[in-house]
Sequence to fold (681 residues):
Amino acid sequence: MSGERILVAKVGLDGHDRGVKVVARILRDAGYEVIYTGLFQTPETVAAAAVDEDADAIGLSMLSGAHMTLAPLVVEAVRARGADIPVILGGTVPDHDLDELKAQGVAAVLTPGTTAEDIIKEVQQVLDGTQVG
Amino acid sequence: MSSDTTSPREQWEQAFNASPTRDAEFTTLSGIPIDPVYGPEDGDFPGQYPYTRGPYASMYRSRLWTMRMFAGFGTAEDTNWRFKEIIKAGGTGLSTAFDMPTLLGLDSDDPMSLGEVGRCGVAVDSLSDMEDLYAGINLGEVTTSMTINSPAAVIFAMFIAQAEKAGVNRARLGGTLQNDILKEYQAQKEFVFPPRQSMRLVRDTIDFTSREMPRWHSVSISGYHIREAGSTAVEELAFTLANGFAYVELALAAGLDVDAFAPRLSFFFNAHIDFFEEIAKYRAARRIWARWMKERYGATDPRSMQCRFHSQTAGVSLTAQQPEVNIARTAIEALAGVLGGTQSLHTNSMDEALALPTEKAARIALRTQQVIAHETNVAHVADPLGGSYYVESLTDEVERQAEEIFAHLESLGNGSLLEGVITGIEENWFQGRISDSAYDLERRLNAGQRITVGVNDFQAGNEEDQIQLLRITNEDEQRQRKRLDTVRSDRNQDAVTEVLNRLRVEAEDPEVNLMPTLIEASHAYATVGEMMNTMAGVFGRHVEVPSI
Fold:
């Protein structure tokens, strides 16, 4: 599993970066190569960075409640580039939004309280499910 | 005043007797009479330098803390309705949460605002929204707090314009502007302009309020967000007070007299789950602030030395699992704030790990404060833990560790805390410390060294149905955009252009105080985004170098 590249991103106006940084370190310590976009990205800049960096997955962190609008736009922007990079969403996402997010193409959602072990497990499952060859 | 020959207790007694007493029965449930404070004749007393035991002699015997509930969502009309509910339920102060676009100085129709309008606070684009936000609320009576930082000067100008239109003179307005830009770069990350340009706006607001608004707190120096971003209690305390010293040095450099502005600086701390450490933190904060203000900055007015603070229970301590348990966490944290002598308090709602609170959840949170205030009798005695071997020792240790951090920052700034703090921001020193502390705690949780109930132990019950959550629809965003369209089409565009041009010219001259022109622009219904963009054209925009 080691060496796969994960782009972690903050999209929109949400400045809460504790979660994204902690998750980035958890993934890095687990052997993934982690790239962090920094704050205030748009769906377009995230998709472009993921393609440019040849990322195997995108991790979006959203705590401002804008996930229903912005997460699907990231999925769309990735697909518009002809790429097949799974998008994993983490943050304050209520259960009632989960089905809709999956239907819009979000590969997995990590809700508050997810342990490090489960984060790594979920990410690896997503990577295994989409890797070609 | 009191002569040097009277004992600290006698001096305290004089001050206490001169203070009003609220209507309550100051006995235990069994009828045992309770003194307002306990301690040896020559010990420390509340209301006396260095104020470790509290800023006032009588503390909650005169007046309970202000139960100030933070609220804001959707449009100004939605939040105005919630404000009125809070007042009806017995809340004694208002606290305004703005949405992300407003916090970043963007209009609701900016492309970057998509999906964020009205989500985690109320959307304010122009004076028109301010008018609806506080409609029917007497701002001469209720104090108002506004959590806004990068665009603080703009939102404050709109608030003043709105009050004046409602017939309340600015000198009568009481409340607090958060206006603490330094912690934005360190922790909350809602910055717009670069640090030094932002500090000019902070200077303008301090200068303006010290001359024109004697009841207004110009900066609420906030550790809350530093802690939420992952710092330890000691870092929260030390970074916050260091930021406070930086604002003091900023105002002194602008030629203001320390006692002209320092009494209107206030603080905002987290009330976290480590009960005694939090109480020690508040006690150390008061002692350090008093000593630095007196000895280093030459304050002579006791009010300049008194650290007065708001506190809020810890959002990060809330769990999405078994959310009702959050009521217990919040109660314990709120109790720490009260035993630590807070001047005002916000209690989080049980559902806030996932969403903004429902009205019911917010009411339970307020009721939690009312239980502490009226049922437990803990407010009868000032600093009830003063003299505890444990709490006194912890207070000393927290203070000692904070002083080490001040020494580091002082050396970073070659003797200036203002320069040290800005350099620390520019070099990512604060940001790195906070991230390291956050990850350290996460590792201890994952290793099972710390337990969070419902998260890494005691999970039985996690599968039960979720509590009902507040839903904010995209309709609010549409409604807000329409409101903004109406404002833009109804206003006198020439007047807006003229005042924005003047704002740009004045922004180029660092000697000019921008507040009067921002108030004028507000009256002309210029939008938040228009004023911020005009200033960004002169000040530039801050970009953080991403680091994990």
In short: The interface with chain B takes residues 12-18, 21-22, 24-26, 28, 34, 36-40, 42, 64-66, 68-70, 92-96, 111-113, 115-117 of chain A (CB under 8 Å). The radius of gyration of chain A is 13 Å.
